[in-house]
Request: fold
Amino acid sequence: MYKIELSSDDVPKKWYNINPDLPGELPPPMNSEGKNQIESLPQIFSKGVLEQEFAQERYITIPKKVRDLYMRMGRPSPLFRAKALEELLNTPAKIYYKREDMSPTGSHKLNSAIPQAYYAQKDGVERLTTETGAGQWGTALSLACSQMDIDCTVYMVKVSFDQKPFRKAIMEIYGGELYPSPSAHTEFGKKVLAETPDHPGSLGIAISEAIEDALANENVYYSLGSVLNHVMLHQTVIGQEVKTQLEIAEEEPDMLIGCVGGGSNFAGFSYPFIKDKLDGNSDCKFIAVEPSTCPTLTKGSYDYDFGDTEGLTPLLKMFSLGHDFVAPSVHAGGLRYHGMSPQISLLTKEGYIEPRSVHQNEVFKAGITFAKSEGVVPAPESTHAIKAVIDEAKKCKETGEEKTIVFNLSGHGLLDLTGYDKYIHNDLEVDGK
Amino acid sequence: MYKIELSSDDVPKKWYNINPDLPGELPPPMNSEGKNQIESLPQIFSKGVLEQEFAQERYITIPKKVRDLYMRMGRPSPLFRAKALEELLNTPAKIYYKREDMSPTGSHKLNSAIPQAYYAQKDGVERLTTETGAGQWGTALSLACSQMDIDCTVYMVKVSFDQKPFRKAIMEIYGGELYPSPSAHTEFGKKVLAETPDHPGSLGIAISEAIEDALANENVYYSLGSVLNHVMLHQTVIGQEVKTQLEIAEEEPDMLIGCVGGGSNFAGFSYPFIKDKLDGNSDCKFIAVEPSTCPTLTKGSYDYDFGDTEGLTPLLKMFSLGHDFVAPSVHAGGLRYHGMSPQISLLTKEGYIEPRSVHQNEVFKAGITFAKSEGVVPAPESTHAIKAVIDEAKKCKETGEEKTIVFNLSGHGLLDLTGYDKYIHNDLEVDGK
Reply:
């Protein structure tokens, strides 16, 4: 059995919210002196997502319309056995991967874009603003907004915008409006450009621009593609489906591996399994893989910091490299974020998640190995997970252990081929290795 | 039910060969005076595919290794109900589409690339040469060759090569070697370039180059992505799966719609249903949609012609615009071929297939309508089918008929976004409308 398919009816009926199960209390968001940011949240977020952000219910019912759209867009996604990769590595390990790349926008991001657009429309909002790194989130939100008949404005980190000429086209096909960030479209963007005209941009800056745009205009909300709890819980449809699929395959996972930027694909994939560990019912290992050039979990400090560069968001207790951190121009644009989901940060601090960092050259090598064997060209972000999977499978070869390794193929790389092209032609930017 | 999934076990065990069921005898391939080309076929084709080319058995067993690779690469592909499109059009018609875009290389082409690479490897061949228009075939053959551990050289029509900068990258990821055609890599390419240095290329020229490369080198075979019977029959896994899926959905199709270039996705999708019509057991309509700029079936003549520009292939009795025809630089590179599968040509001549031509602007409009409603960005080729589907669904709205329309989404357009980009920005090349 190479793929484990579920039927439309198997799309989960509830999202899983990890808040009530966390090991210890989650430090609350804080205001910075003189700037009462938490009070400004209702001005930029829909009621639906704000309720979910601080919810303590373990399970939250997925609205009928959202679940219906999940189905229309192809959920559940299949789980594949990576037989060809196993044979190539000659490993006794069994490798499975969840196919979030099979979403029409090519990544897991639609899982949160749909409900966010749904709740915004419910509040009568006319437009959503957002940031995007790699472009996966901006693409997904553009489609979701088109489905809900609201407008969408995307601020895309400039270096990614330049690396990925066709991201603009696909967002425009879905009706999205796109600005490279820093842009002249906001006061903060103008300020950054005045100081550094050729600034490569960062997710933190793009978030500041998107929030400013939302605050400055009537009937416009802001939408975030990662980091916050409501995003994480929307993504738990992934892990819930994987649980059902592994039961069908009669497998007990030994480790779950995912890449991390702000944390949303990792959380959505792993939380339903981490719950079992928190309940004392599992020995599964959880490995979060990040780029060595943006080592939030492995080298950041666990402290209060802003989610954006300008300081418009509340202070969040999280691993962070500092809100003014500008990551080098590596190609995994979705992983170039200075901070990390507060819940993932806490779970890492408490030892439930093992962070790991990898270098850009070795991840592209892993991506090509995967593409040639399994056929799918993974997103540069997802290759970080694949590099760790290959390392673990090789360890199994040495020890002879028949471990079950499951990873989340968070997206495909068909719109992000510049990095592969440079790697093949030995033209990749150096990142320390 | 929005998607009808089959399990790995449901991958067909046999290919369907339409030869014995054709209405009347198929005119055989002919030699041109002084050029006994049929005798040269064994020099460039594997034994396996040559046998299939002229086979009279109705069903041909799919080799175990090929069927296994079909499964590994995700077959069977799902059949989707286009509910959102139906609602948008407010039509009583029921629209279904086969998801060949979900193949790892993004199109149906892998269905023939895998067996062609398999039979070549079986004959001890070290390298396959081929042509590619849009790039879908070259991508699929690059992956299939990588799976069989043989090399792959692709001659890509120059205008498509220029329109699609990332096609090169993806073929190289899979290990393929790519030349824009006409190229300086072959004598014929050099000749064309000497006469017309800025020649945009054509599939006919690219085929000539690929055949010359195969003839000139030891242990090198040539591989064709469409037109010939063995390619058509490999593709019948599509239609056989659709039959099973429509039975599950309890649907009897009123019409099947597909785009046509050389004919392979259309044949693979429709032949198992055309068989029923040939047997007198079906009233289904079959609509083959081509670009108005390359109107092979609608304006070509049914006569003997070469499959390539130089005249290296045997003469085939088919609809053709002439082997020196150079189609305008429209973006559906996969449909810019002067000829057509001899079997499809005969079936069209005999009235079993209804040909139709559509304009480039209207197909991109249809493609965007589909992308915004169903989520998937279709390949420029597939949008031709979608334009006809929308037309038929609108007719149903007028007449109130609840017809069941099924079409083949032969591929996605994520590597072919230049045309969409130009359409959105009103920069599309004029094609007569």
User: Anything to note?
Assistant: Chain B has a mean pLDDT of 94. Residues 380-399 of chain B form the longest helix (20 residues). The first strand of chain B starts at residue 3 and ends at 4. The radius of gyration of chain B is 20 Å.
